[in-house]
Amino acid sequence: MTISSHFTKFLTDDRGAMTVDWTVLSAGAVGLAIATTAIMTDTIDVLAGRMDSELRTRQLSDEWVQFYATHFEPILQTGFMSEADAEVAYNAANQMMNNEVMSQLASGIEAMENGTITAAEIVELVAIASVAYQRNLADDGMLNYYFGFDGSAPYFMTLANAPTG
């Protein structure tokens, strides 16, 4: 046999075809995995960097949130409650988790809009709104409109069930 006949026999022999096919497929799969890892590594690095910068710029402790009697000023002026009572209501609201604060705030504003809120519930809602305002959980414009934290006349004092002395 000549070299060309050995070469021809090698090329036409199909005994190792499956091994070659699996080798090519495996190499392709490994190549795709490496390419995906390279792409995902960059994306994960970007996301980790964003998360790192977000966490570094946020105040994660709520110890800076404190009682402000000015948030209760319209109610205090009516004599409906004392400043000590307002602080008790505030401290109760400050113990709530953020999702609970937002849920209570939304349902309280809805009750205000519907006219189904009592004077005592308004006091609790002002305390919750004060916490939401200081934790930056809700829009300042909305909180200023309903609760007058910016010194404007609060919406809750225009209600029939507004706290009075």
Please give a handful of descriptors for the protein shown:
about 160 residues, mainly alpha, about 65% helix, about 0% strand, rod-shaped
Residue windows where pLDDT falls under 50 for at least 5 positions: none
Radius of gyration: 34 Å
Query: What is the domain total for the residues?
Result: 2
What's the end-to-end separation, in Å? 117 Å
Q: Determine the mean pLDDT.
A: 85
- Secondary structure: number of strands: 0
- Count of alpha/pi helices: 7
Strand content: under 5%
Give helix and strand order, one letter per element, not per position.
Answer: HHHHHHH
* Helix content, binned percent: 55-70%
Shape label? rod-shaped
Structural class: mainly alpha
Largest sheet: none
Folded structure, characterized:
The chain is mainly α and about 160 residues long. The chain has 2 domains: about 55 residues; about 90 residues, no CATH class. Helix 4 crosses helix 6. The longest helix has about 40 residues.
List the helices and strands and how they pair.
Elements: H1 3-12, H2 17-57, H3 73-78, H4 83-94, H5 98-114, H6 119-134, H7 140-147
Helix pairs in contact: 4-6, 5-6
